[in-house]
Amino acid sequence: MLKMTDVSKVFRTELVxxxxxxxxxxxxxxxxxxxITGPSGCGKTTFLNIAxxxxxxxxxxxxxxxxxxxxxxxxxxxxxxxxxxxxxxxSFNLMPDLNLFDNIDVPLRYRGMKSAERKERIxxxxxxxxxxxxxxxxxxxxSGGQQQRIAIAxxxxxxxxxxxxxxxxxxxxxxxxxxxLELLQEINEAGTTIIMxxxxxxLASRSKRNIHILDGRISSPALTTVSSEPQAAAASI
Amino acid sequence: xxxxxxxxxAMTRNKLGVILITLQIAFTMTxxxxxxxxxxxxxxxxARPSGxxxxxxxxxxxxxxxxxxxxxxxxxxxxxxxxxxxxxxNATVTNAIPVSGSGSNSGxxxxxxxxxxxxxxxxxxxxxQAIDTMDLDLIAGRNFNTGDIQWREPGQDLLxxxxxxxxxxxxxxxxxxxxxDVLGETIYIAGLxxxxxxGVVNQLQGPWPTNSMVELSMLQPMPSVGGRSTYLIRTEPGxxxxxxxxxxxxxxxxxxxxxxxxxxxxxxxxxxxxRIDSAMSTVLWVVISTLIFITCMGIVGLAVFGINRRRKQxxxxxxxxxxxxxxxxxxxTENFLVxxxxxxxxxxxxxxxxxxxxxxxxxxxxxxxxxxxxMLALIVIGQIAVLGPSSGAARTEPAIATRSV
Lengths: 237, 405
Ligand SMILES: Nc1ncnc2c1ncn2[C@@H]1O[C@H](COP(=O)(O)OP(=O)(O)OP(=O)(O)O)[C@@H](O)[C@H]1O
Ligand SMILES: [Mg+2]
Prior knowledge:
With 237 residues, chain A is of the alpha/beta class. Chain A is built from eight helices and ten strands.
């Protein structure tokens, strides 16, 4: 579903060249829950941005669902993001001036969906994160955990191929974070692929598959540790 | 426009900026539309023809002095000389010049009862060459003939009874009557013999261009040969400027008992008479462009502020699948909605203000199409103003969504 071969990303400014990713090769299959770890500045966000078509890579090949993304123009990349990818951000990135309903509506409008179908989907998404009753509220009226649930609902409402999450619990206290992680776990069990950047080593070591990045390179084998008892590991995430 | 609903709902959470710019647009529209209406009114006044072939005409005055000055002979000699100058089409002598701002009028009545209602009409006292010299269009009756002309020295009684009137005067005095029917009618002017209408010219403005009765005028066959005589001269096309110098020179050199003054083309005269009107138009244009400029700055300022405030939102929208043109259209739509509210408010103000102008300054009523055209124009101007900032917003990188804090 997602296949990178020798992908590199170089940021060039007038003074320095930063090799944010070097010779990155990996394959992620449908239904996986992959955690990404590594020290600050190692290239986690860069990897996620390239995987999510927010940035283009400098060299190498990235096939998304069989499509070589380097051949796509800006418009096609936007359409692909809209249809195949759901994003969850560390600081939620909700539109502060829109109520929850309208927030979840944002990606659906870019898909040109009819209003009746949008309404149905949005309400189902709100229901699934337990916040349907608050649909007229604006984000500032919610707690951080609730805001992240809305962001998750927004990422899921378009039924994407996979979810990309960059430290989704980074701004939450541990109890709230646990709730959000459980929600992501449920989503993954229901079949959605999730790629999640985290700083939580413990969480990572318990996950089915962890990719550790050091200086823009994958430091552990991409095939990673498969836990002996998948069922138990999944439940503990 | 797909996002009009959420945009409007989002706008209600940032009211102040929107309200201020909306008021500014409404105010600008009110002033601009009414100012343009005033300018158009003025310039259509200024554009009315006088009835004369102005481009090829000029005039000059001769003022005699001393006992040796012989008015009748001088005027006869001058006219004869002027008429045979190469390049001169014709010349006449008159007491006043159309559009010049100075002349005389008298009350015109249909009975000799001086308490009857009168129309005030400008009069030109001229010889039989006047209609040809001025290039007037005689639409009924006949011109004066040589025998009709009474060369008149100051104080001399007026004897002649023939009169050529403008069509507007004919229509005022004899409403609903065909102009041919008016020929032979008698009209009364205080201090003169009863007068008989012998001809009608299509148009001849009086000397006061802003007067509402400017079209009421008449020609009387009684040129003055007293101290001051004004010659009105029509030249062949292109000969005017050369002849102006030549004629002045000739008049100065042929008679020592007069001074020559007031040499002017009719075009110069028109320009001077309408100077205040054109100055006013210029001032209004400056006001209009300044207001529009300031409003555009306001629109651009609000747009740039709103875009910079929402950089991360824009990046997030891009990440969620907005194409560049969808971001562009988001901000164009936002501006459209703000401007649309502004112009609807502006339409109410514009019409209200115009009613005040009409009732308190006796202005004509503004034509209905001014307001919709103004609304449309401001919306277009607003869209153009916000195009730059919006295309800037459309270039926002989607990576802003994950990179910014
Ligand atoms: N736009 C950019 N221009 C230049 N260098 C950049 C740019 N974006 C990222 N980098 C550099 O690329 C490297 C990888 O950055 P990245 O954001 O991927 O790190 P990260 O692993 O997400 O770090 P953190 O855990 O702190 O979020 C860093 O050295 C960073 O400075
Ligand atoms: Mg990062």
